[in-house]
User: Which sequence fits this backbone?
């Protein structure tokens, strides 16, 4: 099943990825070949088989007590931010 | 020569004060300076902090402390967060990222006194089988610098093979420790899923990723794995099970060990590759093992299964890289959407974008059942096949890779051809099983690997089987020309 350019544009938008005009045909071709490759899975007999999300059986999401264990290190963690003001991350205007 | 000694031998020299950790560290830093430019195995060198850490290890030793890794140098794959040191994951997206904390793997090795020399080059975000997708350029195989070292942990593998450090850490999601170990003639271990903490290890595919080790022998790998492994409450998928004394278990005899030959691994196997595996089997029979043929009928579906599951998980994990809080931000974004799309479009390389988009597609409305849910069902079938095989055999044996190291540039333009390099390694990741690759000979004068796969938490047996093989053969002791 080959993907169209529109398919790739839609996927790129969902994934918030900008693809240049030049790159677009390459992605259409390579994504189509990958999708064709994984289409082989459709031939597997999986009636009555439970999907497997975790490689080890019987695992449950472990919870911890609802107690405060972390400290406020926001300055340390915001040191890597492109733009910070007053402890807030600065981005282009979102709401007009 | 210090760089030809095992971790055990280095430990003896440190203990008897024949050398100091500072001298040992200087020795490896000098080798890196001289030999790394031809390999490009490192992204970040931390020479001054290494010498400080070495001095601290010497002080600990002078104060009466001892431990098998105290003062021993290592290199960390650049996927592990290292406090105060750039952690790039091989990507432009994190080129400016200074990790504000240590990964648990880093913390444990530091606590044991190991000395970090630097961060190893890798395929971008651990996606690749050749170390050609790194923002920092390809890594070259020390056995032939026109060839790839494998990936994604290509830098760690090349550095270990070139004796730039006694050991290196790596990660394995679809084969990224075992495959480069095979292509560079070293021993690489991927533990059971949940055996080693993923806290601070930049996530690619959360149900597949596992941290492990490269070393020049199973004996060395056993020492390192014992320190790395163990429950970590900060990793919600970490398994709370005791860590066996891997080094103590190395020498056990193999009499009665049942080794399963996977029919699907041997079908269509290139004859010279097959010959090496059969030679290895003779050695195992000589050591007292028996062989039995087993079949994993769904194994041929493992590569397509992986290339649905891993991209799906990566599309989710890499959504955090948005140009807002850390990492690359594009210049002069005109609005929020532009900030996201261009930071990600410019910050990520082509293979990463391909996998994010594949993942987005297979998870999208209308396709989720046909692809992702289907893949998860096939994953269960593959895992059940392994379980049935382990009812008949203690461990499984086969090749690690279909071919020896290929030329840089040879496969990079065809993703599906590149993906098929993982054909023998991927099954173990899908089933969460431990796997190990050790050197077993040469094809076209390039190293080849023998792969051992065991049931969950059988690392001790895998290391034991590898160690007994290495006591009878010396492939693992060979160095590439120029790196002796």
Assistant:
């Amino acid at each position: 099943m080959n993907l169209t350019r529109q398919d790739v544009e839609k996927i790129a938008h969902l994934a918030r990825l900008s693809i240049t005009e030049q790159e677009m045909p390459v992605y259409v071709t390579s994504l189509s070949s990958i999708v064709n490759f994984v289409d082989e899975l459709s031939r597997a007999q999986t009636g009555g088989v439970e999907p497997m999300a975790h490689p080890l059986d019987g695992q449950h999401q472990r919870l911890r007590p609802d107690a405060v264990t972390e400290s406020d290190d926001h300055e340390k963690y915001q040191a890597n931010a492109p733009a910070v003001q007053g402890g807030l991350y600065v981005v282009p205007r979102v709401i007009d | 020569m210090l760089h030809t000694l095992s971790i055990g031998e280095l430990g003896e020299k440190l203990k008897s004060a024949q050398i100091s950790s500072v001298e040992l560290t200087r020795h490896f830093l000098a080798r890196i300076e001289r030999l790394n430019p031809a390999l490009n195995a490192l992204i970040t060198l931390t020479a001054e902090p290494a010498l400080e850490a070495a001095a601290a290890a010497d002080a600990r030793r002078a104060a009466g402390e001892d431990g098998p890794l105290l003062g021993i140098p290592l290199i960390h794959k650049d996927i592990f967060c290292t406090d105060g040191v750039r952690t790039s994951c091989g990507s432009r997206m994190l080129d400016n990222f200074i990790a504000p904390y240590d990964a648990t793997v880093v913390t444990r090795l530091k606590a044991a006194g190991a000395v970090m020399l630097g961060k190893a080059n890798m395929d971008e975000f651990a996606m690749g089988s050749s170390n050609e997708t790194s923002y920092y350029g390809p890594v070259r195989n020390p056995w032939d610098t026109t060839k790839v070292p494998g990936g994604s942990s290509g830098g760690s593998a090349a550095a270990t093979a070139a004796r730039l450090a006694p050991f290196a850490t790596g990660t394995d999601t679809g084969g990224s420790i075992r495959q480069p170990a095979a292509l560079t003639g070293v021993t690489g271990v991927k533990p059971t899923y949940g055996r080693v903490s993923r806290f601070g290890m930049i996530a690619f595919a959360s149900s597949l990723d596992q941290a492990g080790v490269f070393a020049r022998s199973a004996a060395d790998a056993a020492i390192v794995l014992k320190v790395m492994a163990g429950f970590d409450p900060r990793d919600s998928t970490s398994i709370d099970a005791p860590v066996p004394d891997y080094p103590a278990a190395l020498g056990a005899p193999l009499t009665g060990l049942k080794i399963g030959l996977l029919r699907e691994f041997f079908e269509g196997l290139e004859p010279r590759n097959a010959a090496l595996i059969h030679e290895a089997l003779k050695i195992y029979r000589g050591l007292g093992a028996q062989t039995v043929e087993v079949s994993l009928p769904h194994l041929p579906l493992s590569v397509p299964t992986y290339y649905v599951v891993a991209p799906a998980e990566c599309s989710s994990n890499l959504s955090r890289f948005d140009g807002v809080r850390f990492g690359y931000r594009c210049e002069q974004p005109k609005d929020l959407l532009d900030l996201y799309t261009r930071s990600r479009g410019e910050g990520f390389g082509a293979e990463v974008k391909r996998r994010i988009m594949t993942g987005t597609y297979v998870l999208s409305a209308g396709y989720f059942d046909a692809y992702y849910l289907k893949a998860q069902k096939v994953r269960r079938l593959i895992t059940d096949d392994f379980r049935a095989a382990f009812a008949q055999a203690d461990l499984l044996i086969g090749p690690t890779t279909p071919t020896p190291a290929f030329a840089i540039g040879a496969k990079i333009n065809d993703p599906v051809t590149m993906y098929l390099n993982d054909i023998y390694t991927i099954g173990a990741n899908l089933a969460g099983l431990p796997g190990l690759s050790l050197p077993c000979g040469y094809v076209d004068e390039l190293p080849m690997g023998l792969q051992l796969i065991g049931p969950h938490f059988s690392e001790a047996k895998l290391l034991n089987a590898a160690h007994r093989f290495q006591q009878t053969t010396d492939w693992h002791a060979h160095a590439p020309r120029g790196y002796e």
Q: What stands out?
A: The longest helix of chain A spans residues 24-38. Chain A has a mean pLDDT of 92. DSSP finds three helices and two strands in chain A. Chain A touches chain B through 55 residues (CB under 8 Å).
